[in-house]
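ZP: hey, is the zinc ion complex queued? I don't see it on the tracker
AM: it wasn't, my bad. submitting now with these inputs:
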Amino acid sequence: MTMKVCAEPGCPTLTTTATRCPDHARARMRAYDQTRPSRQARGYDAAHEAKRKQLAPIVATGCVKCWRCGRYIAATEPWDLGHDDRDRSITRGPEHRGCNRATSGRR
Ligand SMILES: [Zn+2]
Ligand SMILES: [Zn+2]
């Protein structure tokens, strides 16, 4: 059996089974697991942000109603682009930030 030094730079740990010591092998797996969903989420966020920017000038006129409570969103009021509560992939439209918090806080 040959012992090899962990492939991670600066790590002196010897390993026989893998190119990396168990700690670094695990760290790499974890990093890989994290990149996949977050890359997807970033693309999704970008699309969401683009839509929000598109709506911003319209909401700023104060003529848009919150889809949750049905009241107008004042030009100066903070708002979010709301999602359907059951299916997050459905974009419902502008909503008061307060209305958004009220539902998402309930778990
Ligand atoms: Zn190592
Ligand atoms: Zn509202």
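AM: back. The chain is about 45% helix and 15% strand.
ZP: great, adding it to the tracker
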